[in-house]
Amino acid sequence: MPDDPESLLAADWELPLTEEFVAGVRRGVRRRRLVRRAAAAGSAAVVALVAALVLTGSDTTTAVVPPATAPVGSPLGGFEVGYVPSGVRAETRDGSFSCAVTAGMRECRQPGPGVPAATLLQRRYDRDSGAAWMWITVLRPLPVPGGDSATMARQLVDWLTIGTSSVSTFDAPAGRARLVAARGSEVTVYSIVLTTADGIVVSITGNGALPAAELTAVARGIRR
Amino acid sequence: MSRSGFPAGNAEFEAFVRASGADLLRFGHVLTLERHAAEDLAQETLIRVGLAWPRIRRDGNPLGYAHRTMVNVFLNRRRRAVDLPVERLPDAGREDPSLAAVDSAAATRQVLAGLPPKQRAAIALRYFADLPDEEIGRLLGCTPQTVRSQVSRGLAALRRRLAAER
User: All domains of chain B, ordered by start, with CATH?
Assistant: First the structure.
């Protein structure tokens, strides 16, 4: 068996450098320069206009009302997804995992026999450009005898909200939802953690460009 | 605006994007282990490099700056995000010899996915960005000795896993 690091790490890591990728860099640099110039100009009107033109959808407070339409795609872990932001599409294959559930858990570890665990079903949504955009994950506790789903749901929620601050809570058709924010130096990433009455947890999270209002609309569109 | 589409005067930056884009995508792929996330990370990195291009060009090491920026963006995002698994990896085939390469690649990814982000970044910086341990330590906020220990432990895990596959 090879022992040198290069051989050990020899997997196919190459990704094609496409014109679309180069164009994305070009657009990104141009947009951020515009925003910087607008901000430097100190004109609130200019900032608002540029923000509206360039960062469409970045408003975190404007409500987005999910349209009453048929479910988007097949159910995920028993839940219908009734609304997704415009211009995103679901990956064709959902992810499926199992994690051991413990108090203070910080990562998904493979559960051993007799250990409380949860199944995770995850669907990724990408923008038309191919950029990863949003993830919905259904976490279903599998308690061991003597355990209970409510405790496990709390442990799962604690895990999902590590490093975030709570923004608001609200009732959604599928359960009680909490909007949380992970605030970085440049980007704030929002997530919603929804807990059903029977202890199933649904996590909805986006990348830094997905506004809280859109995530909230997704949460309100999730039904059994 | 230049013919390249980048703002006027930034033809050099466009040339840099085209020359180093594949390298940065590969580096991002090792860090994130996921194609879309790697593209997202590489694009964000190059946008930041583009915004600081006049200064970086003067400093004379744009690729080094890009590697550092990418690691910082990667680690900052990881600090903000819960480590939800994002992809089920294929079970390793054990009987078809033609699948051996695929098995090794999957095992490599699984081992790297199981490493803490800093340890994975240390390996990526050592073997994919060719940075010395002192520079990696400065980037990751640890000593060169810690870098060596982290890389060594990561590679040992990889060796064990690949040995178990065979």
Answer: 1-80 (1.10.1740), 103-166 (1.10.10.10)
